[in-house]
Amino acid sequence: MLQCTIKVYAKCLRPDIEYKTLGITYQTTSREVVNSLLNKYRMRHRDPNLFYLTMEVTVRKAGIRTVIVLDDESRPAVLQSCHPRGDSRFALQIRHGGLVKIYDSVLMPGSKYKSLLISEHTTVDELIQILLNCYSSKERVEQFSLYEVCESQEYQRKLHPDDCPLQVQRAWAQGQGFHFLLRLNLDYRFRRSKVPWSPDSPPIPCTSRQSIAQTETVATYPDYQNYFYI
């Protein structure tokens, strides 16, 4: 398979990183380039959904520079081959995100919680995978579930794997003691099993309520851009 090299400017990862040269194929996508950069710099606790690539194209004769935002399925090697050498460059960019706080003692008994910066489109399963990465855990995402817990109303709700925690968090009322709790899913092998629907199938409740005894409170982080991993 044909390969080429691209240079990606990545100061948004760390101020001391100017660029990284990567060897990729013509089938490599922008998303794969982002993941490769995060892995090379051991930043697996960072949310890949926060990052994207841009391509700056220069038309020298006209003195025009154009910046193109690449989607996840774009192929940087193919795009680079469409322009004279030196007339294009790639840069890693970061999106605006939000901070979520997850009580995760089920993963590490000595840990109380982790604070992670994620995108608004990051799903529950993707967030759990980031948590597993923080501990270099080889356990499967399906072994765990994320719960929305409200102390003042004494209830908890199991989130769907495709729910977006940051969007859920933005709907919380201030001062109600909401937080996220990671739990071991003992029947994880059956969590994604599909049951054939029939007219006689009983309805499945989307929430469940039960008393909880925890008293942790959730802090607010107005300067959340500075909190990546605690």
From TrEMBL:
Pfam families: RA. InterPro entries: RA_dom, Ubiquitin-like_domsf. Residues 2-93, 96-187 form the Ras-associating domain. PROSITE patterns: RA (PS50200). This is Ras-associating domain-containing protein. It comes from Nezara viridula (Southern green stink bug). One of its GO terms (biological process) is signal transduction. Gene3D superfamilies: Phosphatidylinositol 3-kinase Catalytic Subunit, Chain A, domain 1 (3.10.20.90).
